[in-house]
Amino acid sequence: VKALFDKGAMVNAMCATAFEQVKSQLGGWGTLLKRLRMVNGAVIPSKAAWKGEVTIGGIKTEGKFEVFKSEGRWEFLLGKPLLQAFQAIHKYETDVVHITGEGSATIIYNQNQWRDNTYCSHFTLV
After folding, report:
1. How many C-beta atoms surround the C-beta of residue 119 within 10 A?
2. Which pTM was predicted?
3. CA angle, 1 as apex, 51 and 59 as ends, to 5°?
4. Distance of CA 66 to the CA centre of its chain
5. Which of 110, 81, 106, 105 is nearest to 93 (CA)?
């Protein structure tokens, strides 16, 4: 799947539409719901939460996603918690992201530039 990286987001998020597509394929769903404050100040309740293994470029870590409607802006948003877990470093001069974990590292190349501090990549959930 594709994901939007956002170093300013304090949670990782999954769009409710993507949630409906993958919920039967993944365990780890919970009902501990949060109220999420958007950048525009709106407060949106999450519909569900998922916790499990996230893999980017062969690097694995544990992650948690809150589920809410993104209004088509993105399917998955990798926020600060996962960027920290992957030890992500964005090299602005080349527009690539270096991630590391458990003795290995990989480079993610930008596929779609939307804003100055966000970029897209492929990742998997287990």
Report:
1. 22
2. 0.78
3. 65
4. 10
5. 110
